[in-house]
Amino acid sequence: MKRRRQAVALEYGQREAPVVSAKGSDELADAIIAEARRQGVYVTEDKALVAALSRLDLEQEIPRDLYVAVAVVLSWAYWLRGMKPGDEKG
To answer: Are 8 and 20 in contact (CB under 8 A)?
Structure first.
């Protein structure tokens, strides 16, 4: 059985918690990842996290039980860009 590819995009900085801004499987997942890379967004792979996030609705804030996992990914992305939380608002 072929494994389905999944992708979930998060938006952070405009609300208190990150929100799901895009999600999809297979070809749509590939398109989401390709667009993220075109936009200079860092992409990471975490099967357990994407499985949990894919259950959320679009524009839904992530639940508190995913804060730590998402914070790890966001801190990595900020570090790669030489930023710290709050820099995106300035």
So the answer is: yes
59: left (phi over 0), alpha (psi -120 to 50) or beta: left
pTM over 0.90: no
Task: Please state the domain extents for the chain.
Answer: 6-89
The span from the CA of 29 to the CA of 82, in Å, is 27
- Class in CATH terms, 6-89: alpha beta
Residue 6 φ/ψ region, left for φ over 0, alpha for ψ in the -120 to 50 degree band, beta for the rest: beta
Distance CA 73, CA 26 (A): 22
For residue 63, give both structure tokens: 């639940």
Q: Give residue-wise pLDDT tens across range 18-54.
A: 999 999 999 999 999 999 999 988 898 999 999 999 9
